[in-house]
Specification:
single chain; about 650 residues; mainly beta; seven-stranded antiparallel β-sheet; 6 helices; globular
Length: about 650
């Protein structure tokens, strides 16, 4: 009798335990955001995305609104209709829609549980869509508040400005899901408060406060000389690294990225990390502009807080490669590595890997961030994008695309959209370095034809069981824009990437500096003399109307200093003017005529040679003998 009773109790206990394991609410997702230590853990569930991309392959990724909804319903537009159980982890938009409304219906209910202004989903001020999970930055708006549901979620838009969005979700098979509630529980509120404290202080100061008593610390100080190698951490016992901090002063800045960071775990035959340290820590085009919650630079300290568990042994090193014909300075370095003896659970966790790639993708081919076979999950991308022609940065119109286990799961709407931003090159949007905890802009320069971005994925990490491809187009259609991409992909898995570029190749460690630059008139600031009237025209140009003679002042900046040749791009017109260029009151060349039969094809007029200073250089464009000048911009050749 006693034995039977024990057996019954054991069965009941097992059933209760199984039921508890299957229960799910949004605290599961919030904990992913608050505790980076959970990043290595494998997750089940297919990740997919609804977006406004143009399925025909053209560039109408929300501009017209044609691909921005599934169907019309009751005076609104259904933009998502997802069958559960599932959770929405990321909702992005670059649409400015004041006065428009979003309505969320769950589990077939007739009454919505969410009704709010479209923009209120992202401001961070409207409960429960609060900061730091919801924010606007770099021209885009992102909501990371988890929205779980048991059976279904239908999102309906009411208004006039339906354009761009991405809605990423994960299917939750065999889980007892608690559907979204409008109010945060006390436990959820505590997690959001903890997250705010963590994200408000990125870098070493914030991480020191989050360190645990079980953490061990190894510190080293040394001078790293060209051609030398230094091991900064080594162990022959299982464990996990929670923080890498490297104070290298300004030693990682500049055009030459000759200091490599390398790591190897357990019995891997390939490097787990093998990249120029500058690229790994988010430097872009020779300078540091990244300060995320997980990776970046704070002051002179480069930090990585992506946890790295291992089974038996680990080694981290810095390798300073020699470069012939260049004077390389020695670098004073201080290293701190935090780790514990808690080794990896191979059945439940992946190892940390990165995939560094420096590629000029061929016409018609995607740039691949990662192409990998095996089990794991994708957690981050850093990208530097350098155009190879003196044009605008339209290569950044390219969409991202992710295939998981052979099936297309995610297709984006533009490169800066993938990185959480929007409207590259527009003032006040994607036009300068901008940091948020999980995504940001690594700078933007139209004259240098370059930009970049970063994005890290915590609750929205993308799981794969057999293989993954994650890549991006270069250009709005067909991958036709010539571009030089440098990317670092981060993932957890069971094996290192085999498609990495080789940082031993000297040319791949050098920042490309273009020699020809285009300045578009509509993006320049002109100061005209009283006799001249300026009118902005289509196509990025200005029409200068003049009675007699006059001048227009402007500056050229953001380029390396030194000698250059300057060309004016003008549209020929029959009553065009003669123009010349002055610097410091001196005429740089002969007068040139802009007269001619009107044509859509612009003329390039050589205006002379000048020395550019470090910063802004002032010029005056002088006009005489005519009535009109249609100026499209200037080309500078160094």
């Amino acid at each position: 009798m006693t034995r039977s009773l024990v057996s019954v109790c054991a069965v009941v206990l097992c059933c209760v335990t199984a039921a508890a394991q299957l229960s799910y609410d949004r605290t599961v997702e919030l904990r992913q955001c608050v505790y980076p230590s959970l990043l290595p853990q494998y997750r089940e569930g297919i990740v997919e995305q609804i977006s406004t991309y143009d399925p025909a392959g053209s560039n109408d990724d929300g501009f017209s609104g044609q691909h921005s909804y599934l169907r019309r319903e009751g005076g609104g537009y259904v933009i998502a209709d997802i069958k559960g159980p599932a959770v929405i982890n990321r909702f992005w938009t670059a649409t400015q829609a004041p006065g428009d409304t979003l309505v969320f219906y769950f589990d077939g209910e007739n009454e919505p549980r969410i009704r709010l202004g479209y923009e209120d989903l992202f401001t961070g001020f409207v409960e429960p869509f609060v900061a730091p999970l919801c924010r606007e930055a770099a021209g885009g708006s992102v909501c990371y508040l988890p929205i779980p549901f048991r059976e279904s979620c239908k999102i309906v838009f009411y208004g006039q400005r339906l354009r761009f969005h991405q809605i990423q979700y994960r299917l939750l098979k065999d889980l007892d899901v608690r559907t979204f509630e409008p109010e945060l529980s006390s436990g959820e509120r505590a997690l959001v408060d903890s997250l705010a404290q963590l994200w408000e202080t990125p870098g070493p100061a914030g991480r020191a406060a989050a360190a645990t008593r079980s953490d061990r610390v190894r510190e080293r100080s040394f001078t790293l000389r060209p051609g030398r190698h230094k091991t900064i951490f080594r162990t022959r016992r299982g464990g996990r690294i929670s923080a890498i901090e490297i104070d290298a002063g300004d030693g990682l800045e500049g055009l030459y990225k000759d200091i490599l960071i390398r790591a190897r775990w357990d019995g891997d035959s390939l490097w787990a990390i093998n990249a120029p340290a500058a690229d790994f820590f988010g430097y872009a085009f020779g300078r540091s502009d990244m300060g995320s919650a997980l990776l970046g630079r704070d002051g002179t300290i480069n930090y990585c807080y992506l946890p790295a568990p291992f089974d038996r042994r680990a080694v981290l090193s810095l390798d300073y490669k020699r470069r012939d014909g260049v004077s390389q300075k020695s670098v004073n370095i201080k290293v701190r590595v935090r780790y514990s003896r808690v080794k990896r659970n191979p059945s439940a966790e992946g190892r940390l890997y990165s995939c560094w790639r420096r590629v000029r993708p061929a016409d018609g081919e995607y740039h691949s961030f990662l192409r990998h076979k095996g089990r794991g999950h994708y957690v981050g991308t850093i990208l530097q994008a350098q155009g190879l022609t003196a044009e605008d940065t339209r290569f950044f119109e390219g969409d991202d695309s992710t295939f998981v286990d052979g099936s297309p799961r995610i297709h984006g709407t533009g490169s800066e959209d993938y990185f959480g931003g929007g409207w590259y090159g527009s003032p006040g949007r994607w036009d300068r370095p901008i940091n948020t905890p999980l995504y940001g802009c690594l700078g933007y320069s139209q004259p240098m034809s370059r930009t970049g971005g970063y994005r890290f994925m915590v609750a929205d990490k993308m799981s794969f069981r057999e293989e993954i491809f994650c890549g991006i187009e270069h250009g709005p259609e067909g991958c036709r824009y010539p571009v030089d991409y440098t990317s670092v992909a981060f993932y957890y898995g069971d094996s290192p990437a085999e498609t990495q570029s080789d940082p031993e190749v000297v040319s791949l460690r050098e920042v490309f500096v273009p020699r020809k630059h285009k300045f578009i008139a509509s993006k320049m600031h002109f100061v005209a003399s009283p006799s001249i009237t300026l009118q902005e025209m289509g196509g990025g140009g200005f029409l200068c109307t003049c009675e007699g003679s006059g001048s227009v002042g402007f500056t050229i900046g953001g380029l390396p200093p030194g000698p250059c040749r300057i060309f004016a791009e003008v549209q020929p017109v029959e009553d065009g003017m003669e123009i010349s260029l002055q610097k410091d009151g001196l005429q740089l060349g002969d007068w040139k005529s802009s007269r001619g039969t009107y044509s859509r094809t612009a003329m390039l007029l050589p205006m002379g040679e000048a020395d550019l200073s470090d910063g802004e250089t002032s010029f005056s464009l002088c006009l005489q003998n005519g009535k009109r000048l249609f100026i499209k911009g200037f080309y500078v050749e160094r």
